[in-house]
Amino acid sequence: MNLPNKITVSRICMIPVFIIIMMLDWGVWVINGVELPIAHFVGALIFIIASTTDWVDGYYARKHNLVTNLGKFLDPLADKLLVSAALIVLVDLDAAPAWIVILIISREFAVTGLRLILAGGGEVVAANQLGKIKTWTQIIAISALLLHNLPFEWISFPFADFALYVALFFTLWSGWDYFAKNKHAFSNSK
């Protein structure tokens, strides 16, 4: 397993750590009169670090010509697992509407299913540019929602909510795009 794939696997391994930390109660820090749950702050940092590994592994793989089929499979899977876990945690914290999370996760399952069908036919589909935009809008929205308690006005709920709707838009658009470009996967269905 090459270094980019190891980085991707590390992203997957950070998911249970993120979930456990987000569910803990370590008390609060009071900053400028705002109570900030310590566990949520640490969990948000872990999510952001895990998210940045997505860029790191992709950059390193392309720069050093280490792109593999395993990486093409693991990288989007790691993204989907991380984003899904964070969104479910946000619903549990009443920081994200369940209907949006259901739509986003449903799209992730649907595209993963499409990838599996294509893989069965010998095709490995790497993430396209629209899929990458989708992932980064999701990461920005989730980060903003996780950090909304910080005493910074720009990470307030209006920004975080707007970012979540932008992520939903790109999530649905990229899902439609994947299915439109790969409709041939269903042409030989029985």
From TrEMBL:
One of its GO terms (molecular function) is CDP-diacylglycerol-glycerol-3-phosphate 3-phosphatidyltransferase activity. Keywords: Cell membrane, Lipid biosynthesis, Lipid metabolism, Membrane, Phospholipid biosynthesis, Phospholipid metabolism, Transferase, Transmembrane, Transmembrane helix. PROSITE patterns: CDP_ALCOHOL_P_TRANSF. Its EC number is 2.7.8.5. Pathway: Lipid metabolism; Phospholipid metabolism; phosphatidylglycerol biosynthesis; phosphatidylglycerol from CDP-diacylglycerol: step 1/2. Belongs to the CDP-alcohol phosphatidyltransferase class-I family. Its main location: membrane. The lineage of its organism: Bacteria, Bacillati, Bacillota, Bacilli, Bacillales. This protein catalyzes the committed step to the synthesis of the acidic phospholipids. It catalyses: a CDP-1,2-diacyl-sn-glycerol + sn-glycerol 3-phosphate = a 1,2-diacyl-sn-glycero-3-phospho-(1'-sn-glycero-3'-phosphate) + CMP + H(+). It comes from Pradoshia eiseniae. It is an enzyme of class 2 (transferase). It is found in: Cell membrane. GO terms for cellular component: plasma membrane. This is CDP-diacylglycerol--glycerol-3-phosphate 3-phosphatidyltransferase. Signal peptide: none annotated. The keyword Membrane applies. GO terms for biological process: phosphatidylglycerol biosynthetic process. It holds the Pfam family CDP-OH_P_transf. The gene is pgsA. The chain crosses the membrane at residues 12-32, 38-60, 81-105, 162-180. It is a multi-pass membrane protein.
